From TrEMBL:
Belongs to the drug/metabolite transporter (DMT) superfamily. 10 TMS drug/metabolite exporter (DME) (TC 2.A.7.3) family. One of its GO terms (cellular component) is membrane. Residues 10-143, 161-291 form the EamA domain. The chain crosses the membrane at residues 12-29, 41-59, 79-96, 102-120, 127-147, 159-180, 192-212, 218-237, 249-268, 274-292. It is found in: Membrane. The keyword Membrane applies. This is DMT family transporter. It comes from Ferranicluibacter rubi.
Amino acid sequence: MDRDEPNPLLGIALKVSSVLVFVAMSTFIKSAGDGIATGQITFYRSAFAMVPILCYLAVKGDLATAFKTRDPFGHLIRGFIGILAMSCGFYGLTHLPLPEAIAIGYAMPLLAVVFAAVFLKEVVRIYRWSAVIVGLVGVMIITYPRLTLFAGGGGEAGAAYGALAVLLSAALGATAMVLVRKLVMNERTHTIVLYFSLSASLFSLLTLPFGWEPLTWRAFLFLMAAGFCGGVAQLLLTQSYRYADMSTIAPFEYTSIVLGLVIGYWLFDDVPTVTMLIGTAIVISAGIFIILREHRLGLERRAARKHVTPQG
């Protein structure tokens, strides 16, 4: 991806905007109402996301090249894993309070560190491993009250399965991140974004015989808005990386929990529990530690390269 002139404040503004729109997407999905099949939600989210993406590519003059790919099979696998992650996440979102679903989803970047070490052979040192372990402990603190149902501790079955679904979504999402890391070596960013929305739409159509129902106008409009927000948020996120380093903007991902708490309380009467707040604080602390550690290592590597004496 080509980098424009660095502008950290603009990059941060775009990142926060993307987080806001992603939370709006989740809010629209929850507002659509219960009883809508997960595959049906996923289809509308993916199909309508293509509208702003295609418009953006057309304006930029990149529409013709966006469909050209060197790795169609890679896009297919990434799309399949991504659609599974999205479906699990939407199932959990419709069965959990909004801030709780957001907080459990923070397990994804932690698991991505583990998967990158295992599958991409990236070097992960003791500091990052320690932060990952602490962060995952925080995730377990958040989910434990829900999972006690399976140990005979009572609770609502829907919420318990919702917590497991979001955990599975985080694991699948981390896998998709690893696949994207491989794709970006040979593919353009807008090609990856476009093919994911396209493949997700097609894969979700396969669930048509399994519980799809006619939608009310209210539900249709909410799901259409969710899809449009998903596409806009993806574009904002992609643009944010053009103006600022990832280590600069990544911590602002955690503004989503603040938005989730406010919207959850205001629209859905979701009151956070003490264990959820404690677990969330642990997860966020671990995530920010990893980001700052990577930023410091990046500075050290750049400084080392500057001091290397040319040979010859």
